[in-house]
Amino acid sequence: MKEITDQQTLLIVDDEPANIQALARLMHEDYRVLVAGNGAKALEVAAGDVQPDLILLDIQMPDLDGFSVCRELKNNPRTSSIPVIFVTARDSTDDEMEGFRLGAVDYVSKPYQPELVRARVRTHMRLKQKTDLLEQLAMVDGLTDIPNRRYFDEELQRQFRRCDRDKTELSVIMMDIDNFKGYNDNYGHGAGDQCLQKVAQAIRNAAGRPTDLVARYGGEEFVVLLPNTDQAGAMEVVENLRRSVAELGLTHEFSDAASVVTLSLGVATFRPAAGSTRAAAPAAAPTPEDCRQLVKHADLALYEAKRGGKNRAHGESWAGTDQKSVRTPFS
């Protein structure tokens, strides 16, 4: 999910520096401007950590022309939603139709009227901002006002790709409110909803760093994504989370773990294996199975924490086939 910011970002793609300069001068007061002098660079920038909100794309470029770039952008889930406007000297109806067929939102022929280009860019930037806002709302859990599972799944892939590229560790904490069904059944669903809201807020406050992601995974289950965090660091966060929820002091007479609402937590840490095929090619995107395995390890660790008596954590780290398990109980 793209973060909504005050200043939007425009990517200008053209193999002629003079054309880039002319468009950049026209747009720089309204937008943050990125540039690319060829198709390959355009694809790299568009898929980067700071993605453009809109792309102005020339067609006639060596090696990879604008049509091919647009096709690649639309075939990549990470860049498929970025609107593309062709700005080109090719003004035939067939070229224009091909641009729209490939998914462009507009087509401007050179020579162009500068104010007309600015107006068209402004219109599509506004549409993109509205689309991003709707998408952002779809990524937030309505009850707890924290990101939902869909957002977590997308961010997990992005952070997995980054940790694999930079060879840093990535940790996931899965947590579950102990005996929540008993709480809901005996205190009522209204009280249960309030409990979820208070626990979510406590978890968010305890997670610490701005880069840490707290999300509601489903029901009474929450998840925390910790980039650049090894197992020892994750275990410190775990204790902060467990203590913060217990210190809420929410009475729970129907729990076999404690007299107040508590958490059980499972931790999994991924360590990129040095010398592996994926470590040797850090640009390769993680597969969905990679991400599922990390979550699966955290979920299994959560099960072990539950089985060990609740109100405690269990953790394990893994890298390819290299696995080890560490049990860390909390009283």
Could you please describe the fold and organization of this structure?
Helix 2 packs parallel to helix 3, helix 7 packs across helix 8 and helix 8 crosses helix 9. The strands form two sheets. Strands 7-8-6-9-10-11 form a six-stranded mixed sheet, with helices on both faces. The chain is elongated. A hairpin with a 2-residue loop joins strand 10 and strand 11. The protein has two domains: 130 residues, Response regulator (Rossmann fold, 3-Layer(aba) Sandwich), CATH 3.40.50.2300; 180 residues, 2-Layer Sandwich (Alpha-Beta Plaits), CATH 3.30.70.270. With 331 residues, the chain is an alpha/beta fold. Helices cover 45% and strands 20% of the residues. The chain is built from eleven helices and eleven strands.
In short:
The protein contains 11 helices and 11 strands. It has helices at 17-27, 39-46, 66-75, 93-101, 114-138, 149-166, 180-187, 189-207, 231-246, 277-280, 288-307; strands at 9-13, 32-36, 54-57, 84-88, 106-109, 170-177, 213-218, 221-227, 263-270, 313-319, 322-328.
Output the radius of gyration: 24 Å
Task: Indicate the CATH architecture of the largest domain.
Answer: 2-Layer Sandwich
> What's the helix count?
11
Order of helices and strands: EHEHEHEHEHHEHHEEHEHHEE
Q: What is the structural class?
A: alpha/beta
Distance between the termini: 39 Å
Q: How would you characterize the largest beta sheet?
A: 6 strands, mixed
Low-confidence stretches: 276-284, 320-331
- The CATH H-level homologous superfamily of the largest domain: Reverse transcriptase/Diguanylate cyclase domain
Strand order of the main beta sheet, please? 7-8-6-9-10-11
Summarize the amount of helix as a percent range.
40-55%
In the CATH hierarchy, the third-tier topology of the largest domain is known as Alpha-Beta Plaits
CATH top level label of the largest domain: Alpha Beta
In quaternary terms, these chains amount to single chain
Calculate the mean pLDDT score and round it.
Answer: 88
Give me the count of strands: 11
